[in-house]
Amino acid sequence: MENSRVHDASRYDHITNADISKVGFYTPAEFKAQLFDWAEDDPEGEVIERGRPHRRQDMPNSGQLSKEQQIQRHKVELEKLLKAMKG
User: What is the percentage of the chain residues whose pLDDT exceeds 90?
Assistant: First the structure.
């Protein structure tokens, strides 16, 4: 058992203190808050990100059903379920 700890520790011999300072552990709320600071520190990243393809912004709610469509889908699914239970 002791031998395995030495082996595990040796995996990290090549990591410097500068590398370790780049590692952080955050709660989800802290991480989200930190994103804004990181974005401000990386203006080149904004240029790269804007050059990448993104989903179309002109289609809000394109994946969501209207209330009427939800009711209709619910009825259809309920009918399928009742038919399966009888059959």
Answer: 5
Asked if 45 and 39 count as a contact pair (C-beta separation under 8 A), the reply is yes
Angle between helices 43-51 and 28-40 (to 10 degrees): 100
- Tokens standing for residue 83: 């038919």
CA 27 to chain centre: 14
Q: How far apart are CA 1 and CA 59, in angstroms?
A: 58
Q: Where are the domains of the chain?
A: 16-52
The CA distance from 87 to 80, in Å, is 10
Q: How far apart are CA 72 and CA 78, in angstroms?
A: 10
pTM: 0.29
pLDDT digits (tens, 9 = 90+) for 23-48: 778 888 888 888 878 888 888 887 88
